Amino acid sequence: MNDSEIFISAFLGCHPKDAQYADSILLLCNQYHDSNGTVCKWVKHILTADCHLSGSFYHLTAIFVAIGTILNCFSLYCFIKINKRNSQNIYLAAISLADTINLHTNFSIPLLRHFSINFDRLFENLKWLCLIHNFTTEFFIIFPTWLIVLCTLERLICIVWPLKRHYLCTQKRAKIYISLLAFICILLSSYRLLNETGIDHVSIFRVSMCHEAKNKFIWLRDLNLIIWAIIPECLAFIMNLVIISVIRRTTNTLEQFYPKARVNRYNQATKTVLIISCLFLIFHTPTGIVIGFHLFFEEHVSIIGITAILFLRKLTVILYEISLCCKFFVYYSTFRDFREILKNSVYRFRQKNSTRLGKQFLYSTKRMNYSFKSPTLPNKTELLLQKNYDLHNKVHNFVDGSFQSNVNNNLVHSKWNSSTSSNRQRSNMRQQQYREN
């Protein structure tokens, strides 16, 4: 059985690009190893499993991109419209925006290049477009990761050094830190403009690189891999441990002095940061490890290693996409104002009313108190005038020696009563007659 027969029998149902990739890997294996040997058999089994996984992988990728875009746009909208604006909301809004762009630069464009030949040729013919795409993929891999680290650091400062939060954790400083981080990430990703290979996810979509990519700055690629996959995970893990230990120690101290008091250990801001950091550690760490092994096996030319790693990268990429989509549910479960703005936005969209909310006030049907004013109740000025008039009549009746209760003088006149004007005229006439006598 020759190589083409092996290819046809094993990868008949694969996508053409996946089948072409599997064919090239098998031919390479047959050149360096025995075609009936153990290595080529394992490579064939892995490629067969990769072929079956690819059928659902591309559909799942498209679904997660659509869901993540919608949910992240909702999150960004709510954080912009939220009434209580602080530094944490600035970080979370930036994370929502960066995750949305990350989904499209690292997954939507490679997916379109995989299925559309004309779209793929556009990148092959326009070198500058391909280089810009390489730059943006690297930038939006590193930038959202360190935004989570900044958000965790901000929460650590608020808990460990609460007296410094008033001048370190402000909206202005948060914007400055985000701008500085973006500038550093631009510098770290600028080498991709020189047609260098990087730490992107393009290889799993079976699309070609930009005009035979160079490998002159391998050390910078490895540095970015460490900055993206190792250092942020370690920092986030350490800061989470410090936050949890400080909160527990403080809570235990308060419970000793106030044993009957109910102490809330974690507020909504701390819960949000801890959950996002844990999801970051769970979903990002496997992706970084697999990419690291991929670069290692490429340098050491291990056919079975590269084939296995490319298969595993599809699984880790699905986890990575889930982490970019699921933050909306964390915000919805921990932020009360986030829930109210989202619910009222949907309500107002249904009612076709104004969409401006959260700027002037935070509308809520549960909080708003409706006060109804009776149309028959006189105001305070009318009541004071009536009391003064009654007192004046009593004094003059007492002087005449004929102090008696007069029903007409003690009536409470209302401005909505039809007889108010006539009664007032009668009392004025009596008053004038008394003065003339």
Automatic annotation (TrEMBL):
PROSITE patterns named among the record's database cross-references: G_PROTEIN_RECEP_F1_2
GO CC annotation: membrane
Entry keywords, A to Z: Membrane, Transmembrane, Transmembrane helix
Start and end residues of each stretch annotated as Disordered: 414-437
Transmembrane segments: 57-79, 91-112, 132-153, 174-194, 225-247, 272-297, 303-330
Residue ranges, compositional bias (Low complexity): 417-437
Organism in which the protein naturally occurs: Didymodactylos carnosus
Molecular function GO labels: G protein-coupled receptor activity
Gene3D superfamilies from the UniProt entry: Rhodopsin 7-helix transmembrane proteins
InterPro entries referenced in this protein's UniProt entry, alphabetically: GPCR-Ligand_Int, GPCR_Rhodpsn, GPCR_Rhodpsn_7TM
Residues in G-protein coupled receptors family 1 profile domain copies: 71-331
Subcellular location: Membrane
Record protein name field: G-protein coupled receptors family 1 profile domain-containing protein
